[in-house]
Structure formats: structure tokens, C-alpha cells
UniProtKB/TrEMBL annotation:
GO terms for biological process: base-excision repair, AP site formation via deaminated base removal. It comes from the Bacteria. Keywords: Cytoplasm, DNA damage, DNA repair, Hydrolase. Its main location: cytoplasm. SMART domains: UDG, UreE_C. This is Uracil-DNA glycosylase. PANTHER family: URACIL-DNA GLYCOSYLASE. Its EC number is 3.2.2.27. Pfam families: UDG.
Amino acid sequence: MDVKIDDSWKKELENEFKKPYFAELAKFVREQYLSKKIYPPPRQVFSAFEWCTFDNVEVVILGQDPYHGPGQANGLCFSVGENVPIPPSLQNIYKEIESDLGKKLPASGNLERWAKQGVLLLNATLTVEARKPGSHQNKGWEEFTDSVIKLLSDKKENLVFLLWGAYAQKKGAIIDESKHYVLKAAHPSPFSVYRGFFGCKHFSKTNAFLRSVGKKEIDW
């Protein structure tokens, strides 16, 4: 099937799109969009790959599900569209950046500015039914995003992976830590942020590592 995704990713993932599970996933997702309210909008399902091409990936942040409220999900994990109230987890991410780097809290929760610098903001599941978190889990998305992580781990070197929370850390177990810099902390949600996310300094550590391997820092 023809998947609307950036050409650099299409080339790398060509074989994945031909697998039977992906055909089943595509059929499921298509039927869901026709019969229910699904987020993000269809054109933004693969936004993480559009804003951050395969060649440009320097940092990977793993999320779980898209936001399931109206107007929130825009295809980038933890990110929301312009003029959308900033969700609690992203507020906590911004607070850690302020504490870590001394940067003022942004007014916008749109993280496209990170993605354009090489931050792949990847959810494990790329679609969700409105008001039903986890509703599109175990339909094939996890297999697809596992293949993306393995592809990056195998084909690239000196990437930074930020794994926040048990779910992301389990999903990131396939990363080759001898080739990449993997940082782990608690999830930034209000339920766990004080268990090790605040004070993790992942943003300064990421930039220090990028500098050490001759790469450009991320302007968080």
C-alpha cells in the first residue's frame, strides 16, 4: 500500500509497509476514521516523520498514545497544536527545561520546533479514539514503531534516546546502548514527575553529548 510518509522514511521502511500486519493495521485505522472520531487528523498521523526526516534524526523521545481530547494531538508525542492549552506532562517537561537550562517557559505547546532540529517525537501508537486512551493499542502500531526504533538503532550511531517512564524504557530495550546514548527517567506526568523526572537534567545532558560527538545542540 502507498503510505503518505516522508520519502527518506519510505525508503527505509519500504519492506515494513509490505508486511501482512501493516495491511491489517491500515485497514483497521481506515475503518476507524470512517466510523468514529479519531485523533490526530488523518494528515497528521505520520507528522513525526514529516517534521524529522530519517537523515536528520539526532534525538528520539518515546511517548505512548496520542492525546485523546479535541484539538490536542498533532502527530508528535507530548506536543499539541498552536493555541491549545499545554497539557500537564508537557508543562512538567517545560519546567524541567527551565530548571535545567534556565530557559523561560514557552507559551506554545507545539513541538514542531524541536522536530525540525532532529528530535523524533515518536508515540508507540499513532492513533487513538476520542476520549478512549489506549483504544488503538495492540492493533499493529507497536510492531511498526518497534521497527522504527530498531532501524534507527541499527543504521545510525550516537543518537540520544530519552526514555521517560516504564513503558518507554521497556520499548527501548531493543536499542543498542553501545552505539547510542540512552537516558532514562520517570514519566513527566503529574502522577510520577516527582519520582525522578524533575532534576533528571536530560536536556543539558543531551546537548553535552551532542557537543561531544561534534553535533549541533538542540535549542529546547
